[in-house]
Design a protein that fits this description.
- The chain is an alpha+beta fold.
- The protein folds into three domains: 167 residues, no CATH class; 45 residues, no CATH class; 171 residues, 2-Layer Sandwich (Alpha-Beta Plaits), CATH 3.30.70.270.
- It contains 13 helices and six strands.
- Strands 2-3-1-4-5-6 form a six-stranded mixed β-sheet, with helices on both faces.
- The two termini are 65 Å apart.
Length: 397
């Protein structure tokens, strides 16, 4: 912003110099004051130096911004003092209000408050100097003009700053939504005086859940998709790590799914996937998360669940699927699933990939052991088929 603004500032300096020279040549003013020339040249030089520094460093720090804002104030009040009679000094405050507005619009509240303070100080200095040189000054009128300016400038900074802050919150919500995170909601109640930003916030809240459903839900099975599942898993891992609680991850896929597609067609396979999704959501407990993570692959997240509890859920899934008359294949072939299960007490929230890998190992073990069974990942035996071991866990639980 400083770079493109520097072009405007340099153009303004050239314009002021040209106008001053033209007025002097035409006789409108007897001569251009030397201080006027110095003021304009100093403004142009400051602008040029700051723009070169920004180009060289590729960044604009607070010092560069403050310097340019002060240069704008100095140009306005310097030329006003040199050219305008004291009775018209108050008009400079209009230009000052423009400086405050642009400082707030482009650089934020701190530079805007700095500009307002510098303008007040510059105006008072100009009035005091004029009075010392014998000009008749009505302090009541001048202070009234200054008070009006302070109120107008302060209101602009506060109101527009609040506007920008709320707009930034909405931008943040959209950035999070772009990453697939729709948990944030615009707090309409915080807007004591609703305006256009409030309207945008309400509109975001209305479409948030609908868009989240489109982005995070698998259309065929009705379960979460992989993105939605990993968001839930990330949050649950963070909470489990804080509490030191256990968490279970269940991986399953449909046995001989390729054969189902090859024999009955992909529409039949899609119907089986849809029915599996419905069954899993029925079996899942409140707080459990069900997702379809691949063609015939599903995962369940079971927060605050130990090995015995997780095995009970997995065993119930196994039985419900095996006994369900799937309409997709008209009951012509039995549909079963293989299930891999990993349970861990979470100490570190950055274990998502490790949990996925262990759940997959357990799933492969269940398939290698003959399918239609549950396998629990074990730290000493890796993944083992545990139809029998699971029963032991139930007794222990």
């Amino acid at each position: 912003m400083l770079l493109w603004q520097s072009q405007i500032r340099l153009g303004l300096a050239v314009l002021l110099g040209s106008v001053g020279g033209a007025l002097a040549l035409s006789g409108v003013v007897p001569t251009v004051p030397a201080m006027g020339t110095i003021t304009v040249l100093g403004y142009a030089l400051t602008t040029l130096v700051v723009s070169l520094m920004v180009r060289y460093t590729r960044e604009a720090g607070r010092a560069a911004i403050a310097l340019m804002v002060l240069a704008d104030v100095a140009l306005v009040f310097g030329t006003t003092y040199l050219v305008v009679p004291p009775v018209y000094y108050g008009r400079a405050l209009l230009f000052g209000l423009a400086i405050v507005h642009f400082a707030e619009f482009y650089f934020g509240r701190a530079p805007a408050w700095g500009a307002l303070t510098a303008i007040v100080a510059g105006y008072l200095a100009m009035i005091v100097t004029a009075e010392a040189q014998g000009a008749a000054v009505s302090w009541l009128q001048e202070l009234w003009s200054l008070a009006v300016f302070i109120v107008a400038g302060g209101a602009l900074i506060v109101h527009y700053g609040n506007y920008k802050q709320r707009l930034a919150r909405i931008v943040t919500l959209f950035e999070r939504a772009e990453e697939g995170d729709f948990t944030g909601e615009y707090d309409v109640r915080a807007d004591l005086y609703p305006d256009g930003i409030t309207t945008v916030g309400r509109a975001y809240n209305r479409v948030r859940l609908h868009v989240a459903n489109l982005v995070l839900t698998d259309a065929l099975s009705g379960c979460h998709n992989r993105r939605g599942f990993e968001q839930h898993l990330t949050r649950e891992l963070s909470r489990a790590a804080r509490n030191g609680s256990e968490l279970a991850l269940v991986a399953l896929d449909i046995d001989y799914f390729k054969t189902i597609n090859d024999t009955f067609g992909h529409l039949a396979g899609d119907a089986v996937v849809q029915e599996i999704g419905e069954l899993l959501r029925e079996v899942a407990r409140a707080g459990d998360v069900v997702a379809r993570t691949g063609g015939d692959e599903f995962m369940l997240l079971l927060p605050e669940t130990n090995a015995a509890g997780a095995f009970r859920v997995a065993k119930r899934i196994l039985e419900r699927v095996a006994s369900h008359p799937f309409q997709g294949v008209a009951g012509k072939v039995p549909i079963t699933v293989s299930i891999g299960l990993v349970v861990d007490r979470i100490r570190d929230e950055n274990v998502m990939h490790d949990l996925h890998a262990r759940a997959d190992e357990a799933l492969y073990a269940a398939k290698d052991a003959g399918r239609n069974r549950v396998s629990i990942w074990s730290s000493n035996l890796r993944a083992i088929a545990v139809t029998r071991a699971g029963q032991q866990l139930l007794r222990l639980g």
